[in-house]
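Thanks for the sequence, V.! I ran Transglutaminase domain protein right away. Repeating your input here for the record:
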Amino acid sequence: MNFKKSAHHLIFHSALLPVVFLLALIALFLQVYLHSSVKPAIESIEPAAALPGALLTISGSHFGNFDRDSEVIIAGIRPTRSAYKSWSENQIILIIPEDVGSGRVFVKNDKGASNGLLFTNKSHIPLVLEGPVEPGVPYIDSISPETGPVGTEITIRGMNFGFERQEGEVLFQFFSGAENEKREEERTDTTIACSSIDFDYLSWNDQELRVRVPDGASPGGVVVTTDRGESNSIYFEVTNPVGTKRYPRMKGYQVAYGVEISQVRSSGQASMEIWVPAISKSCAQRGIEGIHEPEPLWRDYRGVMRYHLSDFDPWTTYRLEQTYWFDRYSIETDIHERSVATYDRESSLFRRYTASNVIIPADDEFFTAAASRQARRAASPWAAARALYDYLLEKLTYSRAPAKNVRDAVEQGRGDSYDYAMAYVTLCRAAGIPARPVAGFIVYGDKKSRRHYWAEFYLEKFGWVPVDPALGDGMQSGEVVLIDNPRDYYFGNLDNQHIDLSRGIIELRPADPQARVVRYERNYSLQSIHEEYSRSIESYRAVWKDMEVVGWW
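Predicted structure:
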C-alpha cells in the first residue's frame, strides 16, 4: 500500500474542504444579497378595471414583507393600512380606495418602486348611448374584439362615419404616467389617434371601420371624430403582454424656427412650394399650440405644412416663421423579453419599415452580413435589437464631421448622430426588425439646441421603442450633459430634451410634376421634398433656421 500517496490525498482533501465551504458561503451570500436588493416587479393586476371598494389582487415578485416602508400606490393614491387584506412575496390583496381615479399601480418597498400597470376606475368608463346625439353625428354601436394589445385589429360598427376617411380619426385613451400628477390632471389632451404612418387605418366606410390599436393607447373610451362631430365612447381594454411604456417626466417648451427665401431671380411667371415641418402630436409631444406667420396653404399634410410663394420681388425676403408651445415627455420602457412576439411579415408596417432604399441600404451585403452575425443567436427581436446596438457602439466613435454615407461611417468607425441613427436603422432592417430614423433637436445648457438624430424600432403587441445610439455611446459635444449609464438608458428610454420633427422619412409628392425638387439630406426634418420651384426660376437663396428655445418650464 502506498501510504505516501494516501497521505497526499488526505492532505489535499483536508485543504480543499475549507475552500469549498468558503465558496459555498460566498454563493449563499450572493444569492441572499441579490434577492434582497431586487426591486419589486408587478406581473399582473386583477381586475384591471373595477369600482372602489372591490378587492384588487396584485401578482408579481420581490414584494418583501409588509412593513413601514411597504405600500401600494394606485393612480397617486396611497391606501390606508387597514385596506390591505394580505401581503406576501408574490401577491398583495387590498381594497380599492373610494377616492381613487384611473392610473398606474405601483408597489414600493425599501428596495425601490416597481413597474406600473394601468388600473381603470369603472365609474370613469362612459355609458353607451342609444343612437347618435344629433343627425349625422357619428355613432358607435359596438367594438370587436373588446380587448387586445397595441397592433390588434379591431372592427368598429355604427353609423355616420362617412364613406371616406378624409379628416376623420379614431381616438383611444392616453395616460402618460407622469410623476407630476397634479399638473397631469389639468390636461384635457388625453387621447391618442390611430396613426397613418403606422398604417393603423385599414378600412373606412359609413357603417364599419377597421383599425389597429395605436402605439401608446391605454384602457378607456374609444371615439370616432369626423367633420360632423364626435361619437359616443365605448370602452376598450388595452393589454400589455410584452411590457409597459411610461412617459414619467414632462417639460414644457416655447420654440421658434422657420425658413427664409430671398434673392429670387426668374424669367417670367414663377412659383415655389416650401414644405415646412410642424411640431406634431404624439405620445411624447402633447398639448401643442402654434402660431404660423404667414398662415400656410395646408396646415398639416403628413406632418408638414405647405407654403405657396409667387409674384416674387428679388429684393424681398420671404419669412415663414413658426412658434410653438407644447409639452415634451420622457419615455421609459420595460420589456418582458420572453413575451416578445415574432413579426407579422405581411403587415404594411413591417414591409414599410424593413424596406431598403438609397438612404437606408438594408439590402447591402455589408449590412446583411453584419446583422446576421450579430443577431443570429438572439432569442427575440428585442434581444437582436440590443445586440445590434451594442455592436454599433463598439464599431463607431462619435465625431462631428459627417461621413460620406452610412456604410462609410461604419467602415471608417466614425460618425455624427445622423450616421449613428442611420446605421442603426439600416442594421435593424437588415435583420428583419422594423425601424425608422427620428430627426429634430436636442436641448441642452441654457436653452441651447442643436440638430440631432436618433431611432426607434417596433415590437409586436407593444409599439415603438426609442434608441439614441450617439448619446448611448457617450456623445460629448459642447454642453450636452449625459445622464448616468447612457449606454443602457438610451436603449429603450429617452429624456424629455429631445424634440422630434419627423419620425421616419416623410414621403411627399411634388405639387407641380414639372417643378424642380430640392431635398436636404441632414435637415432637421427628414423629407423626400423640402422645396420645389418652377423651371422659370433661375436662382434663389433658402435658409432653414434652426430651432430657438424661447422658454421652458
